[in-house]
Amino acid sequence: MSKVFALSFILLLIISCESNTPFSKNKSLSGVWNKEEHIEFDLPQLDSLKTYNLFVNLRNTNDYKYNNIFLIVAMNFPHGKIVTDTLEYKMANPDGAWLGNGISSIKDNKLWYKEQVSFKEEGVYTISIKHAVRNNGQVEGVTNLEGITDIGFSVAEIIQE
What we know:
The chain has a single domain, classed as Jelly Rolls (Sandwich), CATH 2.60.120. 9% of the residues lie in helices and 45% in strands. The protein is built from one helix and ten strands, in the order αββββββββββ. The protein has one helix at residues 2-16; strands spanning 23-28, 32-34, 39-43, 52-60, 68-76, 82-90, 107-117, 125-131, 144-146, 148-157. Strands 1-10-4-7 form a four-stranded antiparallel beta sheet, with no helix packed on it. The protein has a four-stranded antiparallel beta sheet with strand order 3-8-5-6, with no helix packed on it. It is globular and about 45 Å long. The relative contact order is 0.34. Mean pLDDT is 88; it is low at 4-18.
């Protein structure tokens, strides 16, 4: 009887939770991210009267050998406008401890991309992400970045109170 009650309670809890994340998607890599590989996400039509926070989600393993990551993120608007940002994120503390969440050698990182965004144009917005990691003192970027297993993008609605 207690198992049925616990299962019913969990199901009720899941159903009653209202999600404020209208979009969240991840794409898996083979553990190596080539510098020419653009990871793309097409966003669904979002309510133009609401505002959103946007996040890049990365999953890394201990094979990732840098304490930061540089990303080039482009937002392609439905009518041709493109906004491109070069972003740097810390991935580890000075002592080498990963900043992401997770209890094993795999860490999930939810990285801020943009705050308080409104999607005023009707149509498909496309997000394109590529890495721009370089070794210190080198001009050429890292061709095959090891240790990144998943790249994702999420949109969270800002709830006005």
